[in-house]
C-alpha cells in the first residue's frame, strides 16, 4: 500500500511541477521564475499543510520530493521547447495531475487526522494539500486561483476528505482509509474531466 | 465577560462570513469559491494569528467557530438571492462587521500577550486577527486588500491593540483589558463609519 | 563578525523599509498602507523564515529590528516629500538594498542549517529571507513579484545559499560561512546592477 501511495505521489509531483513550470513559461517568467512556479506548484500544498499543523515542512527537511519535482521542472523545459505550452491542457498533463491531486489529498487527510484536527480541519487539510500549490502559483501570477471559479477540481478533494473522515470514524485504519480517499478523488476528477462537470455560480 | 466576548465573536464570524461570501458572489465565483471566500474571511485572521505564534489554528481543531461561519455563508446565499449583493455596504452588514473587527482584534491582542510577544507583536497580532481574513479574501480575488488604501478600518484595530497593551502594562488583568480593547475598536470604527473618516495619502 | 553582520542587517532593514514604503506611496496607499508595505518589506522575509522552521517570528518577539524598520518608513515619508518617488531606482536605495539582500540571505541560511534542513531547505530559506518581504509587498499590490520575471535579484541569494551550504559541508563554522555567503550575495548583486545582468526566459 505504501508503494501504491509512493508511486501516486511521485506521479503527482512530476505532473504538478510540469503544469506549474508551463504556467510560468506562458507568463514570460525568467528561468528562475519558471523553476519557482514549478517547485511551488508541486511542493506548496504540502508546505502549507505542514506549516498549519506546526511541522517543519517535509519539502525543506528531505530531498526525495524535491528531486522528483525538479525532474518535473526539467521535463517542462524540454517539452516547452519541443511542443510549445499547449500541452498544459493535454491529457498527458491532466491525467497525471489528477493522480497527484488524489495522492496529495490523501496525505493531507492523513496528516490532519494524526494532528488530531476536527473533521472540518481534516477536510481543509486534504483540500489544501491538493490545491494549495497551484493556488499559490496562481496568486504569484496575479490571478484568481483557478479552483475558485472554474472546474470541478477542488470538489473531489473535499469529497475525498469527507469520505476519509467517515471511513476512519467507522473504524477503518487510517492508512487504508487514505487509499480509499485517493481512489474517490481520482475517480471523481476523471469523471469531471470526461464529462466537463462544473459547479454552479449564484 | 466571557459571554459578552463569545457573543461578539459569534456576531463577527457571521458578519465576516456574510461579507466574504457576497464578495465572492460579486466576483462570479462558483459555489465552492463563494464558500471558501466566506470561510476564509471569517476564519483567516485567526488562522494567521495562531500560525504566527506556533499554535495549530483553533479553526482546524474545534467545530464551534466553523459552524457559525458556515451559517454566515448559508445566510449569504439566501440574502444574495433575495436582495442582490448591494447589501455588502448596507448597515445590516457593516454594523455586525464592526462588532467582529472589535472581537477579533481583542482575541488577537490576548493571544499575543499570552505568547509573550513584544508590544509591536501584540499590536500586529490584534490588527492581523481583525483584518487578515478579509485581506486574504481580497488577495485571492487579485485585489489590493481594501485596508491598505481606503477607509479607517485597520486603524481602530491598531489603536485598540495599543490601548490593550498600555492597559495590561498598567497592571489590569488581560481579560478585562481585552474587553476594553474591543470597546475602543468598536467605538472608533462606528465613528469612522458615521463621519466617513479616512487616512491621508502622501 | 557579529558587528559586521549587525551593521549589514540594520542597513538592510532601513533600505528595505524605505523601498517598500516608496512602493506603497507610488501605489497611492494611505499612510497605514505605506507603513504596512514598508514594515512587511523589511520584516516579511524573516517572518516567513521563522514561521517555516516553527519559531515565533523574531520581529514579533523583539523590538530592535522593528524600530530600525520604522526609522526606514519615517525616512521614506521625508524623502518622498523632498524628492518624489523617483529615488526607488536610485543608487542611494539600490546599494543599501543589496547589502540587505546579502545580510538577510546569510541569516536565512544560518537559521536553515540550525533547523537541520536539507540542502534544498537551506537554499530556499536563504532566498526566501532575502526576497520574501519584497515579494509579499508586491503581492499585496496585486503585482507579480518582481523577482520572478526581471533582474538578477533572487539568483545571488540562491547562489549564496549554495555557497554557504558547501562551505559548512567542508567543515567551516556556520558563523564564518554566513559571512562568506553575505560577501558572495553582495558581490553578485552589485555586479548584476553594474552590468545589468538578466536571466533568460524560454
Structure, described:
Three copies of one chain form a homotrimer. The first copy, chain A, has one domain (2-195). Chain A is built from eight helices and no strands. The first copy, chain A, has helices spanning 2-26, 31-52, 58-61, 64-83, 91-114, 119-140, 154-169, 174-195. In chain A, helix 1 (2-26) crosses helix 5 (91-114), helix 5 (91-114) packs across helix 6 and helix 5 (91-114) runs antiparallel to helix 8 (174-195). Chains A and B meet through helix 6 and helix 7 of A and helix 2, helix 3 and helix 4 of B.
Contiguous low-pLDDT stretches of chain A (5 residues minimum) are none
In percent, how much strand structure appears in the residues of chain A? under 5%
> For the CA atoms, what is the radius of gyration of chain A?
16 Å
Number of strands of chain A: 0
Q: Describe the main β-sheet of chain A briefly.
A: none
Mean pLDDT of chain A: 89
The most extensive interface between chains reads: A-B, 32 and 31 residues
Q: Name the helix and strand elements of chain A from N-terminus to C-terminus, one letter apiece.
A: HHHHHHHH
Tell me the span between the first and last alpha carbons of chain A: 42 Å
Look at the helices and sheets of chain A and give the structural class: mainly alpha
Number of helical segments of chain A?
8
Amino acid at each position: 500500500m505504501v508503494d501504491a501511495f509512493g508511486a501516486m505521489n511521485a506521479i503527482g509531483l512530476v505532473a504538478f511541477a510540469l503544469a506549474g513550470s508551463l504556467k510560468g513559461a506562458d507568463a514570460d517568467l525568467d528561468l528562475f521564475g519558471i523553476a519557482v512556479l514549478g517547485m511551488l506548484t508541486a511542493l506548496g500544498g504540502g508546505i502549507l499543510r505542514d506549516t498549519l499543523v506546526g511541522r517543519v515542512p517535509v519539502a525543506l527537511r528531505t530531498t526525495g520530493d524535491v528531486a522528483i519535482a525538479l525532474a518535473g521542472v526539467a521535463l517542462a523545459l524540454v517539452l516547452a521547447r519541443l511542443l510549445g505550452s499547449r500541452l498544459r491542457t493535454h491529457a498527458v498533463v491532466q491525467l497525471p495531475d489528477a493522480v497527484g491531486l488524489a495522492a496529495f489529498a490523501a496525505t493531507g487527510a492523513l496528516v490532519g487526522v494524526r494532528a488530531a484536527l476536527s473533521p472540518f480541519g481534516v477536510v481543509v487539510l486534504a483540500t489544501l494539500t491538493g490545491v494549495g500549490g497551484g493556488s499559490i502559483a496562481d496568486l504569484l501570477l496575479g490571478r484568481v486561483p483557478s479552483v475558485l471559479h472554474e472546474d470541478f477540481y477542488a470538489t473531489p478533494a473535499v469529497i475525498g476528505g469527507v469520505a476519509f473522515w467517515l471511513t476512519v470514524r467507522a473504524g477503518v485504519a487510517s492508512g487504508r482509509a487514505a487509499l480509499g480517499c485517493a481512489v474517490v478523488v481520482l475517480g471523481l476528477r476523471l469523471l469531471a474531466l470526461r464529462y466537463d462537470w462544473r459547479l454552479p455560480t449564484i
